[in-house]
Amino acid sequence: MTAKPVLILGSAPSVLAAQSWPKSQFSAIVAINNAWQVRDDWDYHIAPDDFPAERGPQALRTGQKRITSADYVPANNSFGGILYAGGTMAFTTGYWALSALTPAAMVFAGCDMVYPSGSNTHFYGQGTADPLRKDITLRNLEAKSARLMLHAANQGCTCLRASTGESRLVFPSVTAQELARPRKIEIGSNKAQFDEIKTRETALGYFVPSGRYWQSQKPVCTAKLDALDAAWLGAVVT
User: Fold this and answer.
1) Strands of 65-67's sheet, edge to edge?
2) Which of 19, 83, 116, 133 is the most buried (most CB within 10 A)?
3) Is the Cα dihedral 38, 40, 43, 45 positive or negative?
4) What is the mean pLDDT of residues 56-64?
5) Cα–Cα distance measured from residue 153 to residue 133, given in angstroms and rounded to the nearest whole number
6) Which are the contacts of 120, defined by CB distance < 8 A and separation ≥ 6?
7) 109 and 29 Cβ atoms separated by less than 8 Å
8) Residues 83, 226, 145, CA angle at the centre, nearest 5°?
9) What is the radius of gyration, based on Cα positions, of the chain?
10) CA pair distance 157, 108, nearest whole angstrom
11) Distance CA 79, CA 184 (A)
12) How far apart are CA 188 and CA 191, in angstroms?
């Protein structure tokens, strides 16, 4: 496990604060979708299969790598599958980074998934509020972030967000000054609760190995999903 945190860049306007953070503070920088434009020293670019190729980086520097569904779907599956991880690339990226990079901490910048009306929603101006689309995996973004945080904590990894404003993430905030000593999240006595929720999740049988849950013909009970979300959110103690 790497002692330095991984920096994960999203596309919210607040991500621009991360432009000046020294790369030496991080073991890797992961850019989601358009966020590769924020700084040019990123290590990994991750995007869904339907992300337009012309909007991605056209050339890679030495050491840079594109991450596709061939990489992140197996990583998500190792933590229970995309249906539960949520359909946002922020959560998908978190599970992939947790699996592939084994960081001691993940710092999410510009991933708050808050889209105010009348102002810029993305660092490049107005964009599509992807997490607010109608999708069965996105009923409770706070619960999905709680699930990621608890899975990470169970692996010895701390999830943090690099913002103090409104956020759909339930991660503790971290300032630029605190990045050199990110706080640890301990699940402690919640371990039994964590295992019990995972057992409930598995028992639902909603796992879709391909990651393409929208193509699944299996009926899904939203009430059961909501109950599971409530359990994940209720298990967060920091």
Assistant:
1) 65-67, 44-46, 28-32, 6-9, 105-109, 158-161
2) 83
3) positive
4) 96
5) 29
6) 13, 126
7) no
8) 60
9) 17
10) 13
11) 21
12) 6
Tokens of 237: 């103690």
Max Cα–Cα distance, the chain, nearest Å: 49
Looking at residue 207, its pLDDT comes to 81
**How crowded is the C-beta side of 107, counted as CA atoms within 13 Å?**
30
pTM over 0.70: yes
Instruction: Single out the residue of 35, 69, 95 nearest to residue 212, CA to CA.
Output: 69
Type of residue found at 161 = R
Which residue type does 9 have?
L
Which residues are CB-contacts of 48 (< 8 A; sequence separation ≥ 6)?
69, 89, 92
Alpha-carbon distance of 167 to 155, in angstroms, equals 24
Task: Encode pLDDT of 24-45 as tens digits.
Answer: 999 999 999 999 999 999 999 9
H or E stretch at 98: helix 89-100
pLDDT in tens, 78-111: 998 866 556 688 999 999 999 999 999 999 999 9
Residue position matching structure tokens 């909501």: 226
3-state secondary structure of 91: helix
φ/ψ of 229, rounded to 5, equals -60, -45
Nearest to 103 by CA among 235, 8, 39: 8
Integer Cα distance of 75 and 166 in angstroms: 29
Task: Name the β-bridge partners of 30.
Answer: 8, 44
